[in-house]
Design a protein that fits this description.
The protein is an alpha+beta fold. The protein is globular, with a radius of gyration of 19 Å. The protein has helices at about 35-40, 105-120, 160, 215-235, 235-245; strands spanning about 15-25, 50, 55-60, 65-70, 75-80, 85-90, 90-95, 125-140, 170-175, 180-190, 195-205.
């Protein structure tokens, strides 16, 4: 491990993903043929292409009303040997990293490579929003063990939520600066008939619409200044011992 970006031997990450929202070059419009054109660039590494199923209508909650939007078509591309997926829909490219997480440097390289393939397909598209999200599943000794035995109280979760028995949920959204958002959720999920603690950190950067985001620079900022900083606040000695593969 390095002090700056530790890559833990026993990560609890169930999924890490990056969502890139983009605009096609001026004068270009989305066409279904772009799914297959993108596949031609990635097929040596991502040989499986399949439609990603979504509900016919998606619920969108807006201030003062609830809106139903038609779902967008989306295609999924599976890596030949790694737990890595690319998902493409009109205006959105998503990179999904599944266990085992191999560290930030590998994930960042995967994101930049996927975006290079996208630009080879679409031309010089502008990045308008980037989301970087890490979903951790943390084990429990028994279903009545409160999450405070694993997670430390901090600015993103209150002590009362961490002292709670089953059925708790804490969700906080903060805007540390203009055009930046952090969404932090602490809850629970069932995995293999076992109740897990969920720590979900979702950090988003966007533009005001008049400019494009520099991808690599924004990714580093989201990871170092937001995701890692937030995650580090939750670490207890017991959680760190789990991540490092030592005795609990």
């Amino acid at each position: 491990m390095t002090a700056e970006h530790p890559t833990f031997p026993n990560p609890t990450i169930r999924e890490a993903l990056c969502e890139i929202h983009f605009e096609l070059p001026l004068g270009a419009s989305w066409e279904p043929s772009l799914f297959s054109k993108f596949y031609k660039h990635v097929e040596q590494v991502f040989p499986e292409m399949e439609p990603a199923t979504e509900p016919a209508l998606q619920l969108q909650i807006l201030p003062g009303k609830v809106d139903l939007k038609p779902s967008r078509s989306r295609m999924r591309y599976r890596h030949a040997s790694r737990g890595l997926l690319l998902q493409l829909s009109p205006g959105v490219l998503t990179i999904n990293v599944l266990p085992k997480y191999e560290g930030w440097q590998q994930m960042k390289a995967d994101i930049l490579q996927a975006w290079q393939w996208a630009q080879e397909t679409f031309g010089l598209a502008d990045v308008k929003r980037i989301g970087l999200r890490y979903i951790n599943f943390i084990p429990r000794s028994d279903d009545n063990e409160p999450p405070i035995t694993w997670l430390a109280p901090n600015d993103y979760v209150g002590k009362a939520a961490l002292m709670s028995g089953p059925g708790y949920l804490s969700r906080v959204e903060v805007h540390p600066e203009a055009l930046r958002r952090n969404l932090v959720t602490v809850g629970e999920a069932i995995e293999n008939d076992q109740l897990r603690i969920v720590l979900d950190i979702d950090c988003i950067a966007e533009t005001d619409g008049s400019t494009a985001l520099p991808l690599e620079q924004t990714l580093s900022s989201l990871h170092d200044d937001m995701v890692w900083d937030i995650f580090n606040r939750f670490l207890t000695p017991r959680y760190r011992a789990l991540l490092e593969g030592g005795p609990l």
